[in-house]
TrEMBL record, chain A:
The gene is RABIF. GO terms for molecular function: guanyl-nucleotide exchange factor activity; zinc ion binding. Guanine-nucleotide-releasing protein that acts on members of the SEC4/YPT1/RAB subfamily. Stimulates GDP release from both YPT1, RAB3A and RAB10, but is less active on these proteins than on the SEC4 protein. Might play a general role in vesicular transport. It comes from Nothobranchius furzeri. Interacts with RAB8A. This is Guanine nucleotide exchange factor MSS4. The keyword Ribonucleoprotein does not apply. The keyword DNA-binding does not apply.
Automatic annotation (TrEMBL), chain B:
Its cofactor is Mg(2+). It comes from Nothobranchius furzeri. It holds the Pfam family Ras. One of its GO terms (molecular function) is metal ion binding. NCBIfam families: small_GTP. This is Ras-related protein Rab-12. Keywords: Autophagy, Cytoplasmic vesicle, Endosome, Golgi apparatus, GTP-binding, Hydrolase, Lipoprotein, Lysosome, Magnesium, Membrane, Metal-binding, Nucleotide-binding, Phosphoprotein, Prenylation, Protein transport, Transport. PANTHER family: LD44762P (PTHR47980). Belongs to the small GTPase superfamily. Rab family. One of its GO terms (cellular component) is recycling endosome membrane.
Length: 130, 243
C-alpha cells in the first residue's frame, strides 16, 4: 500500500462520501471500467479487512507462506448482493468469498464472509470512482 | 420469439413432480429475507452448463488476458456473478452460475437447476463429443430444472471455424426438437454474440412474465450463497465419459 498520500486520500474521501454516508459517485473497475455500484447504493464504512494483492506476481511471492496483500480499512458496504450492478464472487476461501470484477475478473476488490450474509464490502482503494 | 409451447417439451420430466406453477425454488432462507430497497426490477438466475472445455467460463468474461489475480482465477475460481442488463426499460440483475469444474453430469447439484430461470447449454463446434453429450445434459434439465426455464443452446468457438465438426444445421436441428429451445453460435473469444446470448435469454424470460408481477415473486428464486451440497437422488448412472 502506498500511504504517501494520506492527506490527498482523505480529501478525496470527503468528495466520495455524501452527507448521509453514501457513495456520491459510481464505483468502477480500475482496469476495465465495469460498473460495480451506482451512486448512493452503498454506505461508507471503516473496518479492517485483509485482501490478497491484485497483482499476480506479488500474490505469488509470499512472505513465509502467507499471502501477499493489504489490510484495508475504507470500504463501501451493501447488505444485498443484488445491490451490485456487476460483480463476481470467488469460490469459498474458508468462510470468505472475495469479490472481483464481473467482466475482467481482476480482484479481489472486495470481501464477503459467509457468516454474515448482509455484509458485502468493496475496498475504496481497489476501485475507481466516477 | 414464440414463447408458447405446442409440444410437450419434456416427455421424460417425471422426476420433478408437482405442478408447473409451484416453484420449488424458494428456500426457507428467502422467506425470512426482508425486502431491500428495490435495487432492480427483476432478479433472474441463469446457469451455464455443458461438457468440459466448451468455453462456459469464457462466455461470462468480456475479455481475457494474463493479468488475472492468480489467487482468484486459477486457485480459487469464480463461483458466480451478478450482472445487470437493461431491457424493455427494466433493470434486470442476473445471477449467473458457471458450472465449470463440475462437468460430470451427476456432480452439478440439483440446487443449481432448481432456481434457474434460464439455462445456457454450451457445446464446442470443434468437438463432436461435446455435441453428443447434449442429450445427457437435457436429461438433467428435464429432471431438475423448472419446466418454465428458458433454454438456449450455444455452439461455441465460432472463431475456430476451420476446425468445425458440428454443422450449424446439426445444432439447429437439435434445438428444434426441443420445444422452446433457442439456438445460436458464438465465439466467446471474439465476444461474438455473447452479449446477445444473455439479452436474448433475458428477453425470453421477461416475455413469459406478466409485466406487473409483484417483485416478491421474482426475487426469491435465488439468494443462497451456498447451494446445498446435496447429491442428486437416484440419478441414472453416468455411464458415458464426460470429457
Amino acid at each position: 500500500m502506498d500511504n504517501n498520500q494520506g492527506s490527498k486520500e482523505s480529501s478525496d474521501r470527503t468528495e466520495l462520501v455524501s452527507e448521509d454516508g453514501k457513495n456520491t459517485k459510481s464505483v468502477l473497475c480500475q482496469r476495465c471500467g465495469s460498473k460495480v455500484l451506482c451512486p448512493a447504493m452503498a454506505v461508507f464504512t471503516e473496518t479492517e479487512l485483509f485482501l490478497p494483492s491484485m497483482r499476480k506476481k506479488s500474490s505469488l511471492s509470499t512472505t513465509e507462506g502467507s499471502v501477499d496483500g493489504d489490510n484495508l480499512t475504507a470500504h463501501w458496504l451493501v447488505d444485498d448482493m443484488y445491490t451490485f450492478e456487476n460483480v463476481g464472487f470467488t469460490n469459498d476461501v474458508g468462510r470468505i468469498k472475495y469479490l472481483i470484477c464481473a467482466d475482467c475478473e481482476i480482484g479481489p476488490i472486495g470481501w464477503h464472509c459467509l457468516d454474515d450474509k448482509k455484509k458485502f464490502y468493496i475496498a475504496l482503494d481497489r476501485v475507481n470512482h466516477a | 420469439m414464440d414463447p408458447r409451447y405446442d409440444i410437450p417439451r419434456r416427455a421424460t420430466a417425471g422426476g420433478s413432480g408437482g405442478s408447473a406453477n409451484s416453484s420449488p425454488a424458494m428456500g426457507p432462507q428467502s422467506r425470512r429475507r426482508k425486502m431491500p430497497p428495490r435495487p432492480a426490477d427483476f432478479k433472474l438466475q441463469i446457469i451455464i452448463i455443458g461438457s468440459r472445455g466448451v468455453g462456459k467460463t469464457s462466455l461470462m468474461e468480456r475479455y481475457t488476458d494474463d493479468t488475472f489475480c492468480e489467487a482468484c482465477k486459477s486457485t480459487v475460481g469464480v463461483d458466480f456473478k451478478i450482472k445487470t442488463v437493461e431491457l424493455r426499460e427494466k433493470k434486470i440483475r442476473l445471477q449467473i452460475w458457471d458450472t465449470a469444474g463440475q462437468e460430470r453430469f451427476n456432480s452439478i447439484t440439483s440446487a443449481y437447476y432448481r432456481g434457474a430461470k434460464g439455462i445456457v447449454l454450451v457445446y464446442d463446434i470443434t468437438k463432436q463429443e461435446t455435441f453428443d453429450d447434449l442429450p445427457k445434459w437435457m436429461k438433467m434439465i428435464d429432471k431438475y430444472a423448472s419446466e418454465e426455464a428458458e433454454l438456449l443452446l450455444v455452439g461455441n468457438k465460432l472463431d475456430c471455424e476451420a476446425d468445425r465438426v458440428v454443422s450449424r444445421q446439426q445444432g439447429e436441428r437439435f434445438a428444434s426438437r426441443i420445444s422452446g429451445m433457442r439456438f445460436c453460435e458464438a465465439s466467446a473469444k471474439d465476444n461474438f454474440n455473447v452479449d446477445e446470448i444473455f439479452l436474448k435469454l433475458v428477453d425470453d424470460i421477461l416475455s413469459k412474465m406478466p409485466l406487473e408481477v409483484p417483485n416478491k415473486a421474482l426475487s426469491n428464486s435465488v439468494l443462497s450463497l451456498q447451494p446445498e451440497p446435496e447429491v442428486p437422488p437416484e440419478l441414472p448412472p453416468p455411464r458415458m465419459r464426460c470429457c
